[in-house]
Design goal:
This protein is of the alpha/beta class and 402 residues long. Helix content is 35%, strand content 15%.
C-alpha cells in the first residue's frame, strides 16, 4: 500500500503477519479513534444481506479507518456500502463457492487462524460462529459482539428443520464445538444482541455477557398507513419457516410479498399460490418501498433479535412473529404486533386475523422503534468497548490470546 492509497478501499488476502509493509506506527495512526487506540473489525463472512451484515456495516461507519477481516467476500452479494471498507480476506476467498459456502465450515477455524495474531489495541469480532476465533496479541482487548452461539452446533434440531441434508456428521460437530468453546474463552468481553442470546452464551460457554441491542435505522422510514399485502424478508433456510406464512396466505387468499433467496427457493416457489409474489434479493430503495407499503412485516421463524420487525414498526407497520427468540423482547402482542405460540399454519392463520384488530397509530409504532435506534447502538457499544479497554489499562488481567 502506498501513502496515496490511504482512504481508498483496500481488499486483499490477509497474511499471518502485518497486512503489508507499512510500519505499525503508520497503521495505528490511520486506525486510531475514540481514544481506543487502533481498532480492527472481524466478521464471519461477507456473502449475504442479513441483519448481521447490517450491524457490521454500521461498525464500519463507527470506525471507518479500521480494517475489516473476514473469511470470504462476495461484493455482489452483500450491501454495496461494503465497497468503501478496507476488507481483508483469507485463503477461502479463492474457493469458488457461493451458495454452498457452508460446506467450508470445517476449514473456517483454520482460515481465521491464518490471519495471524492481530495486534490492534482493540479487536471487535462480529460473530455468529467463527469470527470470535480470530487470534489477537496479549496486549489487545478482544470484544465479541455475538449474534448467537453457532446455531448448528448448539441448536441443531431447531436449525436443521425437517432432516435438512446440510447437517454435518457428529464427528465434525464434536470437533468444531471443542474449537468453538476454546475460542470463546480467549475473548476479553462478550456482548449479546439480546437477552435470549445472553442466556445461550451462558449455557454454551459459561460466560456472562452484557446486552447491546442491534441498530435499527429508524430514520430512513416514514410511518405510513398500512397497505394491503403482508411482507416477509428472509434467507430461504429451513429455520426461517417462510413455509408457514406462505401456506397461511395460500389458505386465506391473502397477498404476500417475499424478499430473499437461498437453498429452499424451489421448494417455496412450488408451494406458493397465486397471491404470493417472490422478489428475490432487492436493492435497499426497493426494500424500503415494500416495507413502507405493506400491511405488516412477518417473521415466522425464531430470530435471535429480528431487525426486520422493528424496521416495519419504524414504517408504521405491526409485525407478525413467532413467540420466541428476540420477538418476545421487542414485540408487545396486540400493540406493535401479534405473536403466535406454535409453529403451525393454523396458528399463523389465527395471528393474521388478529392483525386486523391492531389499530395503533403509525407514528406511535415508529416512536416505539426508536429505543433501538442507530444512535442508541453507537453509544451503548462504544461505552462497553471503552469500559473493556479501561479495565485493561487499569490493571485488568488477561491471558495471552494466541
Amino acid at each position: 500500500m502506498t501513502p496515496d492509497s490511504i482512504g481508498r478501499t483496500v481488499r486483499h488476502e490477509a497474511s499471518a503477519g502485518p497486512p503489508d509493509e507499512v510500519t505499525q506506527s503508520e497503521t495505528d495512526s490511520r486506525h486510531r479513534d475514540d481514544g481506543l487506540g487502533s481498532v480492527a473489525l472481524v466478521h464471519d463472512y461477507l456473502n449475504q444481506r442479513g441483519g448481521a451484515e447490517r450491524v457490521v456495516l454500521e461498525m464500519t461507519r463507527m470506525w471507518p479507518a479500521a480494517p475489516l477481516y473476514t473469511s470470504l467476500y462476495r461484493q455482489g452479494s452483500v450491501f454495496p456500502e461494503f465497497a468503501a471498507a478496507d476488507v481483508r480476506t483469507t485463503f477461502l476467498d479463492r474457493v469458488p463457492l457461493d451458495e454452498g459456502f457452508r460446506m467450508l465450515a470445517p476449514a473456517l477455524p483454520l482460515a481465521f487462524r491464518s490471519l495471524g495474531a492481530l495486534d490492534h489495541d482493540v479487536v471487535i469480532s462480529s460473530s455468529s460462529g467463527w469470527a470470535h476465533g480470530v487470534r489477537t496479541s496479549s496486549e489487545s482487548t478482544h470484544v465479541v459482539y455475538c449474534y448467537a452461539p453457532a446455531r448448528w452446533l448448539y441448536s441443531a434440531d431447531q436449525y436443521f428443520v425437517g432432516g435438512d441434508r446440510r447437517r454435518p456428521p457428529a464427528i465434525v460437530t464434536r470437533g468444531l464445538r471443542s474449537w468453538d468453546r476454546r475460542a470463546a474463552g480467549r475473548a476479553d468481553v462478550y456482548i449479546a444482541i439480546a437477552e435470549n442470546v445472553r442466556d445461550r452464551i451462558r449455557g454454551a460457554y459459561g460466560i456472562e455477557a452484557e446486552v447491546v441491542y442491534p441498530p435499527v435505522d429508524t430514520l430512513r422510514f416514514d410511518p405510513r398507513p398500512r397497505g394491503e399485502r403482508l411482507l416477509a424478508i428472509a434467507r430461504f433456510l429451513p429455520y426461517k419457516r417462510i413455509d408457514l406464512i406462505l401456506s397461511a396466505c395460500n389458505r386465506l387468499g391473502v397477498g404476500l410479498d417475499i424478499v430473499g433467496d437461498g437453498p429452499l427457493r424451489h421448494e417455496l416457489r412450488d408451494l406458493a399460490g397465486p397471491t404470493v409474489s417472490f422478489h428475490g434479493v432487492v436493492s435497499d430503495p426497493v426494500l424500503h418501498e415494500l416495507i413502507e407499503g405493506c400491511s405488516a412485516v412477518c417473521m415466522p421463524g425464531v430470530e435471535d433479535f429480528g431487525i426486520v420487525a422493528l424496521e416495519g414498526n419504524a414504517a408504521g407497520k405491526p409485525a407478525l412473529a413467532f413467540a420466541g427468540g428476540g420477538a418476545v423482547e421487542t414485540i408487545r402482542d396486540g400493540v406493535n404486533g401479534v405473536l403466535f405460540a406454535t409453529p403451525t399454519v393454523e396458528s399463523v392463520v389465527e395471528a393474521i386475523y388478529r392483525l386486523d384488530v391492531i389499530d395503533s397509530d403509525p407514528t406511535a409504532l415508529a416512536a416505539a422503534a426508536e429505543r433501538f435506534s442507530v444512535e442508541r447502538f453507537r453509544n451503548a457499544l462504544t461505552s462497553k468497548v471503552r469500559t473493556a479497554v479501561e479495565h485493561r489499562r487499569n490493571g485488568g488481567t488477561a491471558e495471552p490470546h494466541s
